[in-house]
Amino acid sequence: DFDVLAREIEVLKPIVRDDIFTLSSYAIKKKILSIHLLISLGLSYHFQNEIEETLKHAFERIDELVTDETDLYTISIMFRVLRTYGHNMLSDVFSRFKENNGKFKECLIKDVKGMLSFYEAVHFGTTNDHILDEASSFTLEHLEPLAMCQRAIPPNMLKLIQKALHIPQHRNSQALVAREYISFYENEEDRDETLLKLAKLNFKFFQLHYFQELKLITMWWRELSITLNLPRNIKERTVESWFAALVINFEPQFSLGRIMSAKLYLLITFLDDACDIHGSIPEVASLVNCIERWEPDYMENLQGHMKSSFQFVMYVFKEYEEILRSQERSFMLDKMIEEVVIYTNPNDS
Length: 349
Fold this sequence. Notes:
- By secondary structure, the chain is mainly α.
- The chain folds into 2 domains: about 1-190, Terpene synthase, N-terminal domain (Glycosyltransferase, Alpha/alpha barrel); about 205-345, Farnesyl Diphosphate Synthase (Orthogonal Bundle), CATH 1.10.600.10.
- The chain has 15 helices and no strands.
- The protein starts with a helix and ends in a 5-residue tail after the last helix.
- The relative contact order is 0.07.
């Protein structure tokens, strides 16, 4: 139940906030490590103001904070978290982990947690962060054997490494990251039980939203297929389209945005399939011309599935128009139409 979960979450949030953000200014590094936990557990959106304020102060003192820090895990987490929030912590900070010969220290290999976090940090690099290119080769060389069980490590750490090598956390869906990291964190000896409980409740809250969204989109698609007499052999891609939207924004407050995005992805994949399977070149050209004109009356020039395809386009954007008007965001509609016109025009692709 949404209300019950929401109330339980609201009870725990102040406790977690006090535990993390009321630490003294001398404990900034500890706060940053905790912010990493909030991000990984899918909780950071609850504490955005506190996180941004903490990281702003941390970045102002970055030289002081890292001067004597020799722990690979701590430096890597700081680098990841600060860059996540737009603070350009310099990658030269990793130079301290090199020998005089320019190679990374062999002793780092024993620090599995640090190596994994170093590997994850690599994916925040830019074209100018040459040291991170070296770090990518170094970490992969030693993490890949671990992922293949060539050395004994705790099962939960093994699973985390395998998942990171498959898709780094930074490039994965944050909802999936949260689900996987909750399982990992649950097995950590130094876990915070209150934080873990909040993460689990929060993820259940996610799931309720997600189930409702999928149900709504699936019912919408199936009813629409019958109403508009869409081709029956077109694959139903409601889950794929919704998941593509989830990758962009996973938080509950973006539920409407996910639904709108999923419908747009459904529309685009439908147009691809309809044109590939059911349209001749002249028929597809007529459909593209019709979309460019964006005039419902011009639809009389279309036949069969090309006509129902254009009806589908008009139906979706009629919905968008009503939603955006209700939110006083009608100005966005023209840009959305422009993007669809560009997408369907082969000369602009």
